[in-house]
Write a structure and sequence with these properties.
349 residues; alpha+beta; BirA Bifunctional Protein, domain 2; 11 helices; binds 3,4-dihydroxyphenylalanine
Amino acid sequence: MEQELKKLREETDKRIEKIKDSAALNKLYLNLFGASGSFTKLLKTLKTLPAEKRPAVGKLANEIKKQIEDKFSRQRSIIEKVKIDEWLDVTAPGLPPQIGHLHIVTQAISEISRIFERVGFTRVRYPEVEYEWYAFESLNMPANHPARDDFETFFLDTPSIPKMGQLVLSPHTSSGQVREMKRLKKPPIRMINIAKCYRPNWDISHTPMFHQFEGLVVDTGINITHLKGTMDYFAREFFGKDRKTRLRPFHFQFTEPSFEVDISCGVCLGKGKLTDGNNCRFCKDGWLELGGSGMVHPNVLKMGNIDPVKYSGFAFGWGVERTYMMKSGTKLDDIRLLYSNDIRFLEQF
Ligand code: DAH
């Protein structure tokens, strides 16, 4: 009888392993342990054994029954697990779709546009691939003028055409100044030109493609106070009420006088020193440099067919990325991150 029990266990083990659904498993269980099951029948023969053998064989029979039952429950859990994996709860809430947002440079561009539109500026865009004439000559930088070197430029491999020169990737949005004068033909002009610009630089504060926003106002009686007032207005709106601007004398060919516009530092609030007495690491003496500006040079007005005796104007041109980096709370220490397409970086804004 011992042999028969062991044989039954081996055969049953093999059969259980092959079973893939619970109904077949239950059936096999009944075939073994049901009233007329093979194990039950075998157990009934126990009483035919000599009395002294019965306890040992009885014990073996119990062990084998337990082993077979364990095998059944292991197989049942394997079958059940497959079922869970295939199971679909149609009432479960769906996976929320990932919501994207505009790139921070695009956000900054719309914010800047809105700030200037509120005081009567019109947003325009001019070509990224531009004639040399608009990028330089029209801005009081004749051919071979050394000031052109300040604007390192990508030249397109195209033949130079009379007056207009070669095609370039516009190195600044100032190229749009005379285009706007020609478009409107006559002042008043209140332009905000925001566009891509290109210069061959690549380091923590430069990318070969970047954005600038260029303001141009031309009308009768425009003077430096209008320029300063507009700078202060922008600084308050974009950076916050507690920020101020200052004009520092500078040189540009297309403005006279020319200035660099600085903004009071948002970290030390223009003091240059932190509350612990140490120098502010974020700025120089409390100020950060925003970009260029000035009163439109008479030669530039003439290029746009505007009479410089009757009209005057101011202009400014700043980098969008640079300006955005100066907004307090933006801890952006490498401008190239903006164009690295790293979703983990972009999701923060
Ligand atoms: N175009 C100059 C640059 O890219 C910036 C600039 C300076 C623009 C003075 C202006 C201006 O309109 O008046 O560096």
